[in-house]
Amino acid sequence: xxxxxxxxxxxxxxxxxxxxxxxxxxxxxxxxxxxxxxxxxxxxxxxxxxxxxxxxxxxxxxxxxxxxxxxxxxxxxxxxxxxxxxxxxxxxxxxxxxxxxxxxxxxxxxx
Length: 111
Prior knowledge:
By secondary structure, the chain is mostly helical. It is built from three helices and no strands.
């Protein structure tokens, strides 16, 4: 059950981060704030009118913290995998260079 929830969360977090990182999402958020600001005179700039934007932004910020953490974790995991691959490749190249060097030195000694 834990794996099911984790996998679903990762899929959802990846989908949301892909879509919210898009310029259209930013434009939609700006449009929403603009509509809220324009509606100020209609609601007479009441406390409820202000509470709507404050509550909305607080909730979005709260949820985005978890998505940002998940994105950071995925990035770190990918970097670790790539670093391990680079380390393995570096080890293989170093071994190959050493064996070529030994062969070269071995031929000089024989000559």
